[in-house]
Design a protein that fits this description.
InterPro entries: Cell_shape_determining_MreD (IPR007227). Keywords: Cell membrane, Cell shape, Membrane, Transmembrane, Transmembrane helix. This protein is mainly α. The chain has one domain: Arp2/3 complex 21 kDa subunit ARPC3 (Orthogonal Bundle), CATH 1.10.1760. It has six helices and two strands, in the order H-H-H-E-E-H-H-H. A two-stranded antiparallel ribbon has the order 1-2. It is globular and about 55 Å long. The two termini are 13 Å apart.
């Protein structure tokens, strides 16, 4: 039990590290979002509460890498909580709504990862726009497409790395 949680934390830190690296970058704003794939995987496989908590802490890790922004009053504003809220909502929704619809094959994983990454990106963009300003370089479609392309391989790797059975019953 404790060892399982430790491996999940290590996986989350690895996803955070890979999000910050330029190793898989294709263009100016086209890089995969490993953290949202991680959250989607555990929300599908383990249920809504795993999706909620991994989304919350994974989003906080993602938010810490954003840094601060100097506002018009020369104060520094930090964007903590935006990714956390969107990833938590996505993780919870996936765990609750798609419980019976998920099948583990290449096509369904690709469609789910594309759709939920796109939904997560749109929700995060709306939160940025509501609380700060619009970001014209924020990529929706290309990041979602990139995640959909690598998502099935990462799902099968996560299944192997976390030693989960393909038909594991969620809690």
């Amino acid at each position: 039990m404790i060892l399982e949680k430790l491996f999940i934390i290590i996986g989350m830190l690895l996803a955070h590290f890979l999000n910050g690296s330029n190793l898989f970058e294709l263009g100016n704003a086209i890089r995969p979002d490993f953290m949202v794939i991680f959250v989607i995987f555990f929300a599908f496989r383990k249920g809504a509460m795993y999706g909620l908590w991994l989304g919350f802490f994974g989003g906080l890790l993602t938010d810490t890498s954003l840094g601060g922004e100097i506002g018009p009053d020369d104060a520094i504003y930090y964007k903590i909580g935006l990714h956390s809220l969107s990833y938590s909502l996505i993780g919870y929704i996936i765990g609750k709504v798609t419980r019976n619809a998920y099948t583990e094959n290449y096509i369904s994983i690709t469609i789910y990862v594309f759709g939920f990454t796109l939904l997560s990106r749109i929700l995060t963009y709306l939160l940025f726009w509501m609380f700060f300003h619009s970001n014209h370089s924020y990529s929706f479609f290309y990041v979602s497409l990139y995640n959909a392309f690598i998502g099935p391989a990462l799902f099968f790797f996560f299944t192997w790395a976390f030693r989960l059975d393909p038909d594991e019953v969620r809690q």
